[in-house]
Amino acid sequence: MNSEYLVAFLASTAGAATPLVLASTGELVAERSGVLNLGLEGIMLVGAVAGFSVTLHTGSAGLGLAAALLAGMAMALLFGVLVLTLQTNQVATGLALTLFGIGLSAFVGRDLVGQTVAPLPRLHLPVLSDLPFVGPLLFSFDAMVYASLALVLLTGWMLARTRLGLLIRAVGEAPHSAHAIGMPVVKLRYATVLAGGALAGLGGAYLSLALTPMWVEGMTAGRGWIALAQVVFATWKPRGLLLGAYLFGGVTVLQFHGQGLGVPIPSEFLSMLPYLATIVVLVVICRDPRTILLNKPVSLGQNFKAD
């Protein structure tokens, strides 16, 4: 394996990991407040088609990303109203949201299939981007890659070091006790759900504007589910999200590089590698109940209603 191939592989891994980082970071914040949103797949698809459609018709990727963010928040708001206000079951509602997002994105994008947009521009930093090996590996990505890394660091700091993070964690651990001392439990949960939806929408838009700058029905290909698994893999800690996202991103990219190198393995097996890796990692983690319960919010998936 020469250095050029290694750089190409690692750079592709960063791109493949970015939508997972965005979606799983938003989901982690929501879950730390006690809300389990299984609708990430549907939200990412709606974000992908919204971002692509607006970018195609306006020529502005910035407007496309803003549209994806708002579309993700709208889907999350629908989920929040059903779960937080109407007290529906979180698991069933999340699954229904995924099915709704799959259908809605297919309907909205039916006339967009086959069209393309210019991919998100890569940054070029004087001197740094031109360095051999290090330049293309660290200083030649688009802004969303760097923003996703900063987002994880900011989320970790917010949850661990700020009053807002303390409130979110308190609501996730003991919502009734938090409510008894005056914390706005429902409002905080709404805020975390909306933030999670916004980031999932951005993750979907990254797929249609950067990784594959076109609209393809069902283009998330299970990434929403992988993002959900990553939160468990990270044991509800932001720092573990990067490891999980880049691990799964590398496995995803490996299938394409393996086919390009002529590896004598059936393409169907290479295509299932990311999902197989997800299952293996979760099985290994879940073998020890103490590990899986280490940072899991006590009230995760449980509805709250003020007395």
Number of helices: 14
Q: Uncertain regions: pLDDT < 50 for 5+ in a row?
A: none
Helical proportion, percent range: over 70%
Report the CATH architecture.
Orthogonal Bundle
CATH domain fold name: ABC transporter involved in vitamin B12 uptake, BtuC
Characterize the largest beta sheet: strand count, sense, and whether it forms a barrel.
none
Indicate the radius of gyration in whole angstroms. 19 Å
Output mean pLDDT.
89
**Total domains, how many?**
1
Instruction: Count every beta strand, where a strand is a DSSP E run of 2 or more residues.
Output: 0
User: Gap between N and C termini, in Å?
Assistant: 63 Å
Report the portion of residues in β strands.
under 5%
The helix/strand series, from N terminus to C terminus, equals HHHHHHHHHHHHHH
- The CATH class name reads Mainly Alpha
Describe the structure.
- The protein has one domain (3-292): ABC transporter involved in vitamin B12 uptake, BtuC.
- The protein has 14 helices and no strands.
- The protein has helices at 3-32, 40-58, 61-85, 90-108, 134-138, 143-161, 163-173, 175-180, 185-211, 223-233, 238-260, 267-271, 273-286, 289-292.
- With 307 residues, the protein is mostly helical.
Looking at this protein, list some descriptive labels.
307 residues, ABC transporter involved in vitamin B12 uptake, BtuC, 14 helices, ABC transporter permease, transmembrane helix, membrane, transmembrane
Would you kindly provide a brief summary of this structure?
This is ABC transporter permease. The chain is mainly alpha-helical. 71% of the residues lie in helices and 0% in strands.
